[in-house]
Amino acid sequence: MKKLLPSANNHKPPNSKFKTIVDRYSAKREKLISMLHDIQEEFRYLPEESLRSLSNELSVPLIKIYGIATFYKSFRLKRPGRHMLTVCLGTACHVRGGPRIADEISRVLDVKPGETTKDGEYSLETVNCLGCCAIGPVLVMDGKIFGQITTKSVKNILKQTDKDRNKKEGVAG
Amino acid sequence: MPTLKIDGLDVTVEPGTTVLEAAQFLGLEIPTLCHMDGLEPYGGCRLCLVEVGSGDKSRLVTSCTYPAEDGLTVRTNSKRVLRSRKMMVELLLSVCPSSRTIQDLASLMGVQKVRFKTRNDDCILCGRCVRMCKEQMDAGAIGFVNRGHKRKITTPFNMKSEVCRTCGGCIYVCPACNLRCQGPNAPGDVCGSCLSLQPTCTERFDDYMCYLGPTGNCGTCIKKEEN
Ligand code: FES
Ligand code: FES
Q1: What is the domain class of B3-77+199-220 according to CATH?
Q2: In a structure prediction context, what are the per-residue pLDDT tens digits for chain B, which is 227 residues long?
Q3: Which residues of B touch A (CB under 8 A)?
Q4: Where are the domains of chain B?
Q5: Which end of chain B is less crowded, N or C, counting CB atoms within 10 A of the terminal residue's CB?
Q6: CA–CA separation, A63 and B5 (whole Å)
Q7: Chain A nearest C-alpha distance from B134 (Å)
């Protein structure tokens, strides 16, 4: 079994970081979305605690903030895995076999789109067009774009991260 | 003060009045669902559609949100309006056939079958409860989350809200929570037991001729013509 990430559960945002973000926008309620973006950048998702604190700070009802956070697709309410896999299912990638790639990843990692593997390593997510249709089907992993993916190359890419991780952990430990 | 013409009747209202309020002031009936006195207009159910302007330039607007302007001509029950309203009821009925309010509206509008896939939801997203909670109860415990076909009304994180005082206001104003009466047909069907089969003036003329109910159901003019 792979190790759980430290503090994978019960994650509470350190108050100082949260405070700087709110102060950066001088706690103005019309800057709510910018704050949410910054919080997500800091913690990689929107922790429940931070939304609650935000509601207190700005005196905006919590449901309003929750509504906004669920309305936009770019906001994440669940803690993502260490590696983010984004498969494009836009029209161009779709006809070139994007769905097959997504299925393959689901099968190999045992994770459904929009979910995270049990060990907290990988999150799979699907999007509609990344704007680089010419190299489709497209897979983005941790911000790096891979074009012309096949079911075979998926495995290689995943292996790559495994190696990376082993290397890093070897050095650290 | 704006003066407008609704169904051929002149009316002068306070600035800031909506077309719906002006029509109600005249005693004209416009079916509504998401509108409720004391709550902000929302314009979500599209039942209160009326035709404004005349001739080719006329268009359909929701009367509950449309401000009464000077010189406006409004028709609350033209053929076009009735056709669109009927469609709205049919769509609502396909979402939530268990609601008595909507079944009643269907009977009133003469909707006899639903051509869409029934979803059997218990919410039509009219947002009355959301506005009630926020505006009248000053709590803001519930609201819309997600978007598109996943949109629904719930509390933050689907948990019991800390600001909810369980006043029950949301249930009190809900038009979908009152269950339909037990008819002879299956719960998902159109009930239609209250359907009026009498011919109405809107079947013959472009507008309704008397002011007895939103579909011209008195039928007097039709009888007169037949005799
Ligand atoms: S469809 Fe995949 S990048 Fe455009
Ligand atoms: S009453 Fe006007 S849109 Fe619902």
Answers
A1: alpha beta
A2: 899 999 888 999 999 999 999 999 998 889 999 999 999 999 999 999 999 998 888 999 999 999 999 999 999 988 899 899 999 999 999 999 888 899 989 988 888 889 998 888 889 999 999 999 999 999 999 999 999 889 999 999 999 988 999 999 999 999 988 888 776 777 677 887 777 777 777 777 777 767 666 666 666 776 666 66
A3: 134, 140-147, 155-157, 161, 163
A4: 3-77+199-220, 81-121+178-197, 127-174
A5: C
A6: 42
A7: 9
Q: Which ligand is nearest to the CA of A140?
A: 1
Q: Which of A36, A45, A69 is nearest to B143 (CA)?
A: A69
Residues of chain A contacting B146 with CB distance shorter than 8 Å: 70-71
Substitution target from B130, B135, B145, B153 for chain A, most A beta carbons within 10 A: B145
Distance A133 CA to ligand 1 centre (A): 4
Q: CB neighbours (10 Å) of residue B217?
A: 17
> Mind listing the domains of chain A with CATH numbers?
16-71 (no CATH), 83-172 (3.40.30.10)
A75 touches B at CB < 8 Å: no
For residue B155, which residues of chain A lie inside 8 Å, CB to CB?
63
- Cβ–Cβ gap B146/A71 under 8 Å: yes
> Residue A67 is nearest to which of B141, B143, B163, comparing CB atoms?
B143
How far, in Å, CA of A124 to CA of A147, rounded?
17
Q: Do B163 and A61 touch (CB under 8 A)?
A: yes
Q: At A23, which helix (H) or strand (E)?
A: helix A15-24
Q: What's the token pair of residue A6?
A: 């430290």
Q: Which fold has domain B127-174?
A: Alpha-Beta Plaits (3.30.70)
